[in-house]
Every structure is written in C-alpha cells, then in structure tokens.
Amino acid sequence: MIETTFRKTIEQFSDIVQFVEKLELSEEEHISKLKTNLKLFDGTSLWIREVWIKGKMEVYSYYWLRSDETIIMGWDNVPHHREIVTFPYHKHVENIIEPSQQMNISEVLSFITEFLD
Fold first, then answer.
1. How far is Cα 36 from Cα 48, in angstroms, rounded to an integer?
2. N or C: which end of the chain has fewer CB within 10 A?
3. What's the predicted TM-score (pTM) here?
C-alpha cells in the first residue's frame, strides 16, 4: 500500500526528484514503515521516515538537507512542542520551531517546489 502511494508521489514530483537514493520499506499486517532519501535536482536531499498503523500514518519526519547535510528545514509530529498551535505537527526552520501545515510527502514536496520557484 505505502509503496504504491510513494512511487506515485515520486512520479508526480519527477521535476524536482532526481532519484531515490535509498529505500527501506516494510509492510506487515498492521504496521508499515518507509525510510528513504530522495536526491533533488539542486543537490539537496529529503530524508523521509513514516510509520503507518492500520492504514493511518502515525509518525512522520521529513528533513530537507543541503549537500553538506545541514538542515534547511524539517517537518515532524514528535509531540514535544506543545506551544505550537498545530501541535504535534511542526517544522524546524534553522533554530526556530514553527506551526506546520505540511504533514505528508506530497505536501512537503509541494512546499519545496514552491520555495525553489
């Protein structure tokens, strides 16, 4: 299930995703996990981690990195920033924690596409 969705998303964003560098997928009866690294056309990369339980994404993190692996921006739903209005969903912009509306691969890649335009 998540592999098919992932591959369709990568096709949709083929204008910015140069290639999938590493892909780890495990799909069991009730738990699916995705861990991958996308190389983008500008030399940056997007590290992706998702955990799905019974068909619902429960945990995610997406980190957009420069070629030297410093963080440009990161999105996750680790419940540790209760002050954020979108808790537990938030993004890291350098040393600042901000509310986040991007909560899946497609939304993050859309954000990056718009950011780079």
1. 5
2. C
3. 0.93
